[in-house]
Amino acid sequence: MDAERVLAERFALGEVLDGIGGLAWELDAATGELVWWLPEPEPPGAILGVAEAARAALTGAVPLPGAGGGPQGEARRVGWLERLTRGDGTAGWYWVSAEAVLGPGGDVARTRGVALEAGDLHAELERLHYHNEHCGELYLRIRTGAALGFEFVSGACKYFTGYSAEELYESGMAYALAAVEPATVSRIEREIVGGSIEGRSIDFPSRRRDGSLLWVRAVFHESYDEDGNRVLDAMIKDIGAERALELEVAKLKLTDTLTGVSSRQALEEQWPLLRERARQAQSWMALAHVDVDRFGLVNSALGIIAGDALLRSVARRLAEWVNDAGLVVRLGSDNFVVLVSDSASRQAAISAVEQLVDAFLDPLPGPQGSSFVTVSLGASILPPGPWTDDALDVRLAEAEVAMRAVKRRGGNGAEIFAEAMRTEARGNVELLADLREAAAADQFVLHYQPIVDLSSRSVVAAEALVRWAHPERGLLSPSQFIPLAEEHGLIDTVGRWVVARACAEAAQWPEVAGSRVKVAANLSARELNSPGLVAGVASALDQGGLDAEDLVLEITETAFVHDFDAAVWTLRRMSDLGVHLALDDFGTGYSSLAYLAQLPIDRVKIDRAMVIGLPSDAQSRAVVAGIVGMADALGLDAIAEGVETAGQLAGVRELGCHAAQGYYLSRPLPSDVFRARLLGDWQRPLALS
């Protein structure tokens, strides 16, 4: 009955083991033969190896914890992880658990055990082992003196070096001396000799057995043995990830994140090397400052995203043009520096700069279609050497000065720095300092150019044109200081002064032919966007004693490109004051016809460029006739600017212009002279023929 129950239990166990892929056995410890095994189809040879290993461990042949004798019937157990090959040829990781059953004399009579699949357990242990080796620190103890070598090496040595601890013990210091760069070894030796190695942290690359490099940080501590020899303890940490992050950060510092070209810091770091290479190769260099023309209009009209896309396209075009012959750097906003090297002569370097401007003749591709871009470029040309002043900031300043000269000409060109430009730039710096005080010191004066009604031939208005009575430089024209004022944010101050003074002086003018003579003042785009503009004009009218209807404010078409809706809102508030509004320089802007009907203006001033071809040029006649016809249809006065000859005057009269101004009628006159003319001969109709 007991035998049947045992067989039944074994049968049931065999089915379970077959289902889970396990093994079980019992071994006669004396003969080494299997008493039984499960599952039975499994060949005994496949089980015998693990069963014999268990018997050896349990009988003391293998010194494992828990092996040895004990009282009869007491079982001692062992367990381990092992890779087994089954009878059907499949292999896998198994957890082996075996026990010893003792006989009457206390010796091991039988051993029995099971082997259960443990692939997941093995994988987890491998991960833990890998983590321990890869994330742990390597601890070394090095004895110096005659017994130079490793006294202790921790288990992480395999990861850090590729060698086992035993191999390192045998090699002495040969591995360390071969794995570490000589410069680092020399540094450590100097620190030891100097007695300053204690607590010192040193970062360096170490070469593994397979040739790969590992960046490590070693922290040293020192002590002395009984013979007086120095003993070094080194705790070594893997800083590969930290080093990679540092390199990435350094790369980001040297790269402009928006465009992908080099940063200003990269230029500063590479400058000495680039100059030394040029000296050795006896080659000329060109350092060019590239500014994208009218980039602010793109940002304002299309948005920042479109502006960023345009900058990326510009950077790509520059990089494609330079290729491997130089360096492209973004200074910020729409400003780039292009460094062109390896030119054989000064003229070759200049030619390279001029060709760079031509690189933008073709349109730039973009997400919203292709777009044409022009650039203003100023360059400093550097000879191979020797140099009197080779500082980078000096060369950058020279290139910027030359670029500003191109900007003043309207952009889309190149200029090479000349020493005279430096003198001019220094003069502009001094002039700018004086300009900041000019309004408060009441150094500005107004000249007035009359506007004549072509029907009555009477002076009906005058345009106020500012001059600067500089205490040292004399009377300066607007072209000498207005660009500075616009560039450095002083145009608001100048503009407010002009409106206030014009209102005060015009209020004292006599009537002509029974009508008040209006005064016209120019508003810049910056002033139009000023939140205090309307209140400032109202204050100027009130304090000057001028009726609002006797003031005309002139605005150029480009003032509307930045923010059309905001500009229109401001002009409507100005119109509500009763002030007249004129669109200046008409015909030279971007969208005159599209927006003209929406603007609260009552007059247009036809630009001199449209008038200069009259009366003979058919195209000029057609353009002026079209503007006058459109003005009539919209109920606007058309005023011709820049009339300089009798023929031009006859032409604008014939084409129906309502009024005109220009040198043929009168040059701008000082305030007192202009008022005297109003009181004198201008009281009668002018002889226009």
Account of the 3D structure:
This protein has 689 residues and is of the alpha+beta class. The chain folds into 4 domains: 2-119, Beta-Lactamase (2-Layer Sandwich); 136-243, 2-Layer Sandwich (Beta-Lactamase); 255-417, Reverse transcriptase/Diguanylate cyclase domain (Alpha-Beta Plaits, 2-Layer Sandwich), CATH 3.30.70; 431-671, EAL domain (TIM Barrel). The chain is 41% helix and 26% strand. The protein contains 24 helices and 25 strands. The chain has an 8-stranded mixed β-barrel, surrounded by 5 helices. A 5-stranded antiparallel beta sheet has the order 2-1-5-4-3. Helix 10 (295-302) packs antiparallel against helix 11 (304-322) and helix 16 (491-506) packs parallel to helix 18.
